[in-house]
Amino acid sequence: MAALARWCLRRRAIVIVLWLAAFAGVAAAAAVTGSAYSNDYDIPGTDSSKVSALVERRLPDRAGDSDTIVWHTADGAGSVRAPGVERRMTAALRQVADLPGVASVTGPYAAASATGPYDAASVTGPYGAGDTGRLGGSGGLGEAGDNGRISADGHTAYATVVFREPAADLGEAEVRRVLDTVRSAASGAKGLQVEMGGAGAGLTERTGPAHLSEAIGVGVAAVVLFLAFGSLAATLLPIATALIGVGTAYAAIGLLGHAMTIADFAPMLGMLIGLGVGIDYALFIVTRHRKGLRRGLSVEQAAQRAVATSGRAVVFAGATVCLALLGMLVLRLSFLNGVAVAAALTVALTVAASLTLLPALLGLIGMRALNRRERGRLAERGPEAAASQGLCARWALYVERRPKLLGAVAAALIAVLALPTFSLHLGTSDQGNGSAASTTRRVYDLLAEGFGPGFNGPLTLIGSMDGADDRMAFTQLPETLRTIHGVASVTAADLGGGGDTGVITVVPTTAPQSRDTSDLVGRLRAEVLPRAEEGSSLRVYVGGLTAGYDDFAAVIVSKLPLFVGVVVALGCVLLLLAFRSIGIPIKAAVMNVAAVASSFGVVVAIFQWGWGSELLGLGRAGPIEPFLPVIMVSVLFGLSMDYQVFLVSRMYEEWRRTRDNRTAVRVGLAETGRVINSAAVIMIAVFSAFVLSGDRIIAMFGIGLAAAVALDAFVLRTLLVPALMHLLGGANWWLPGWLERLLPRISIESEGEGTGDAEVGAGGDGEGPASGPVAVPVPLPGQPAEGAAAAGTARSPVP
């Protein structure tokens, strides 16, 4: 590590140019090739997957993407069948049909149809990106002659716009022209409201300038860094390093999308994680570098030592986060594989930037890493000695005196926050969860009001049949389905695909995200359809929005225990090797689970229960995304491991020196508290700022991760963990003798790796020989190790 830092320092111009060239080259390549993201929740083998496959193979004319135009007349403004309304909307729909990118338009007025005579089977559901739900015929939802596109009260009607390209490939400008055209029909018409919903319309909804959330997060982080350093140059280094690493990764993820399935939120998620950890990792190295300068080391010596010590901890921390993220690969789900690789790539590049670009920048700014007052004090008084004092030291002493009370308070707080997790409902949000001010949300509400809540998520039953008997059984199935509780309407069986495939659309009485709709899907699959298939070769599969989301969530939940077990086991092994203790890994695993559970409680309360979701601009309450637990567990276990290592390593160092548990815990907490708290504040600021992204999924991650980091840093690591360690005493460090002999010895921060300077001794900071027979494994980045390493020094850990 020291050799790498030395090379980067002495060739800093080359290093900086190479990083800038890499960033510019990858960004240019990504701009030329474009993006190829895919939100494909399809899981082979499930009912919903079979429905999608049958539609694409045998009914290709029904597999396209479409948006829905809805118009509504207020009470007292007449019906949507009024001549004036019909004339306005007919003209608007004709104009839409002639716009670039539009394949067809089908509405309730015969004259407005751009596809000729109405084809009942061509009517698509309103939220159709990848959705195979279909609604054909009147089905009791409208009057004859309007194909069910006019509500029973006559105040709401809709038309379907089919685009020539999938929603993911549509340009925002094309969709906006459609939206502006139909909205112009309402101009000057009192009581007429026109809205547009669907995946295409969602492209037009931008809640603010691009990357506003990232800018705010970085701005808050800059304030925290300036308060900590007092030097503008030192403040800019962690931010510049993180931005270059994350920016390169962001562009690389766009290129990676052409080679594997990557969700459209993966780049934003990678940026969210990368900015948080990247600024923190650079913070640890810069903090150690500044301490070296204050102790009289040259710029090159201080930077080499910072990378040789804190840089090792950064590598360990980053590797832990990457391994936790890549643990998602054990689930063997293509949708999550891309997310895992994208996030891990971002973390890896931020670590690489911290180890190479940051030393080069440290050499570039020289002594300006210290503020003017620090430089003046160094010139007048010479090198300073380290001391553990201040608020963190007083807090450490307070925890030592009242471990039972404070531990109980912390445990109670975590338990209360975790309670909402028990009501967790996994599902996928749709445009009904958007902001009340958005056109897509208004379309969703108008359709639910006019045609029933289930209209926004019809179930599609696809029958695969062989012979006349199967076709007869399938055509009789609608009569049975109409008697099932929870079914609002059922279309007649539509036989297509050469007579071997049939389609039936079932409209539930409840909304797509309702548990009752999920229960209906379960009853159809477990009870109703098996009876219809009995004694024949007919096979009927249930698809549609709710069915597809339920299948995805069920697979995730079934594999979640395996995933959590792998991640927890990995973390325990790493901590066992680092601290040679049974108790430390077990406590860490329990604390990590507590952090995850409590942060999920916050997410459930805000997004599922709706506590403040509309106030925060996050839309209506709804289910939690099924992949959120997996990704958050990966990220949180990695981040929690970082804090655990930074805190307990200093305790372990003091324990090896004094064999006094109370002193070890007090010193560790006193000397690491400030760095951990500063790092946590930066992460919380970055994560919280992503609430402003306008993306509900990213907002879930932002709030969940911000809550987890806050609880982990300020409740678990600085309160509950030290309280428990005081209560357990020497048992914290117990390890069976036979296991002690078997375990290899690892050193996260190598004290013996010199920097090539004469003053660097075996103790790692040049203050004297190391005490004890074994090198201290993990001093905290940015914290002095010389007090524990210097033979015979027994300074008081707190003032």
From TrEMBL:
UniProtKB keywords: Cell membrane, Membrane, Signal, Transmembrane, Transmembrane helix
Domain SSD: 234-364
Positions with biased composition (Low complexity): 783-799
Keyword Transmembrane helix: yes
Residue ranges of the TM segments: 215-232, 239-259, 265-286, 313-335, 341-365, 405-426, 552-577, 589-611, 631-652, 673-691, 697-716
InterPro entries per UniProt: MMPL_dom (IPR004869), Mycobact_MmpL (IPR050545), SSD (IPR000731)
Subcellular location per the Swiss-Prot or TrEMBL entry: Cell membrane
Gene3D superfamilies in UniProt: Multidrug efflux transporter AcrB transmembrane domain
Stretches the record annotates as Disordered: 753-799
Membrane topology: Multi-pass membrane protein
Signal peptide extent: 1-29
A Pfam family: MMPL
Family according to the record: Belongs to the resistance-nodulation-cell division (RND) (TC 2.A.6) family. MmpL subfamily.
Protein name, per record: MMPL family transporter
Annotated organism of origin: Streptomyces javensis
